[in-house]
Specification:
The chain has about 280 residues and is an alpha+beta fold. The protein is built from twelve helices and nine strands. The chain has two domains: about 100 residues, Phosphorylase Kinase, domain 1; about 160 residues, Aminoglycoside phosphotransferase (APH), C-terminal lobe (Aminoglycoside 3'-phosphotransferase, Chain: A, domain 2, Alpha-Beta Complex), CATH 3.90.1200.
Length: about 280
């Protein structure tokens, strides 16, 4: 390998004030060559702009096959990525060939997507909706009994606690904020449906591939309400979300064949949590 390059997104986040993350990034020039030797892979230049919490690059294994090396900072959001990919076993998502946890790094050898174009850059919004919904419906399944996946309510409770302690801007309806926080706590528990969720599926986490037209990468798996799983895609479509949030939610619910009222409530709660109070006001129950 030549001198290790830190991709743009990773370098950007490394300018924050999290000492543990800064320390992890500072050690990557030593960590990556050690992993390359241990795994017996040849690695190219990292993808740009790359991920915010991981160093990802095209590689070839000992047999010369195209793979991807992903070295991520170990933190709560990154847990169980490899476990979920193994449950899906290539059905709508990239395959995982090997994984390991080494100190504060999660290491994965993954299927390479070529050409690797993101869905977000390849198709207009309405067509993205169809692809996202089709993939989610394939990914939703009941995992094995000994699965490691956390329940969705754990993530939502954490968000609710953070929202409660955050300062509410002047002019924002405090009752609306309280309602959004209450829904973050109640919605995950108010359904009997519970499937393996992606939770962070959006157009930048879906890549064009040879084996299938589109494959999911970078899941943040939880177990819970399928009506939740379209929310991140909608939040990432800022223009359409601002134009007609309820209409976008109902469209996604129709494509996913889930309860439209629950999708609207989930979107409302997440908009409150994200500080998108003007949009939340238009969705308020």
């Amino acid at each position: 390998m030549t001198r290790l390059r830190i991709p743009a997104h990773l370098a950007e986040l490394a300018r924050n004030d999290n000492p543990a993350f800064l320390d992890w990034v500072s050690r990557l020039p030593d960590t990556i060559p050690e992993l390359v030797d241990r795994l017996g892979v040849r690695v190219g230049e990292p993808y740009e702009p790359g991920g915010y919490c991981s160093w990802v690059a095209p590689a070839r294994n000992a047999a010369g096959e195209e793979v991807v090396l992903k070295v991520g900072w170990r933190h709560p959001e990154s847990e169980h990525e490899a476990d979920a990919l193994r449950v899906w076993n290539g059905d709508g998502a990239v395959r995982v060939f090997a994984s390991a946890t080494l100190g504060d790094s999660d290491v994965l050898l993954l299927e390479r997507c070529a050409p690797g174009t993101t869905l977000r850059s390849a198709l207009p919004g309405a067509e993205q909706d169809v692809v996202v919904a089709g993939l989610l419906r394939r990914l939703w399944r009941t995992p094995p009994a000994d699965h490691p996946f956390r329940p969705l309510w754990q993530m939502c409770d954490q968000w609710a606690a953070e929202a409660e302690s955050a300062e509410i801007p002047d002019g924002v309806d405090r009752g609306l904020v309280r309602e959004g926080i209450a829904l973050l706590r109640s919605l995950p528990l108010a359904t009997d449906d519970s499937v393996l969720l992606c939770t962070d599926l959006h157009g930048a986490n879906i890549l064009a591939a040879r084996r299938e037209p589109w494959l999911v990468i970078d899941p943040k798996p939880y177990l819970g309400d399928p009506a939740y799983d379209a929310v991140q895609h909608m939040l990432n479509r800022e223009d359409r979300l601002a134009a007609d949030p309820a209409g976008l939610a109902r469209r996604m619910a129709d494509l996913l064949d889930v309860d439209a009222k629950r999708v609207v409530l989930w979107l409302f709660a997440r908009c409150v949590q994200q500080g998108l109070h003007e949009i939340a006001a238009r969705l308020a129950p």
